[in-house]
Amino acid sequence: MSTENTVTEVAGILERVRFDDKGLLPAIIQQWDTSEVLMLGYMNDEALRRTLTEGRVTFWSRSRQEYWRKGDTSGHAQFVKGAALDCDADTLLVQVDQIGVACHTGARRCFDVDPLAPVVGSPST
């Protein structure tokens, strides 16, 4: 694929995305081969462009107001394997090859650190 085609395709994707009122898109990060949900981050249009064209996941930090890539300081990098918008184009799923842990706490997944005990439903109730 040529760079020109990639730029055109990414521009078309950015036109379809429904960013929130702060210009952000929630991005669910999933391990590509096990389907583990690793974390949730946020992307603005530039972070999404970088993620789709550079092969590494880039986020927009809401607290620091800057771009960041998982692994640049920790070594626990996320390499893009696939991506998809949901049916409303307001949430992104990014499938990655996670090197090391995904959570800043040192846990494999961010959702490992505070498990809840909800009532489990069933179709018969």
What is this structure, in a nutshell?
With 125 residues, this protein is α+β, with helices and mostly antiparallel strands.
Tell me what the structure shows.
- The protein is α+β, with helices and mostly antiparallel strands and 125 residues long.
- The chain is built from 2 helices and 6 strands; from the N terminus they run H-E-E-H-E-E-E-E.
- It has helices at residues 3-16, 45-54; strands at residues 25-31, 37-43, 58-61, 66-69, 78-85, 92-98.
- Strands 2-1-6-5 form a 4-stranded mixed β-sheet. Strands 3-4 form a two-stranded antiparallel sheet.
- The radius of gyration is 16 Å and the shape is globular.
Q: How many strand units?
A: 6
What characteristic shape results from the CA principal axes?
A: globular
Give the SSE order as H and E letters. HEEHEEEE
Helix content: 10-25%
Number of helices: 2
**Main sheet characteristics:** 4 strands, mixed
What's the pLDDT, averaged over the residues?
A: 93
Distance between the termini: 52 Å
Approximately how much beta-strand content do the residues carry?
A: 25-35%
Stretches where pLDDT is under 50 for at least 5 consecutive residues are none
Radius of gyration: 16 Å
Secondary structure class reads alpha+beta
Strand order of the largest sheet: 2-1-6-5
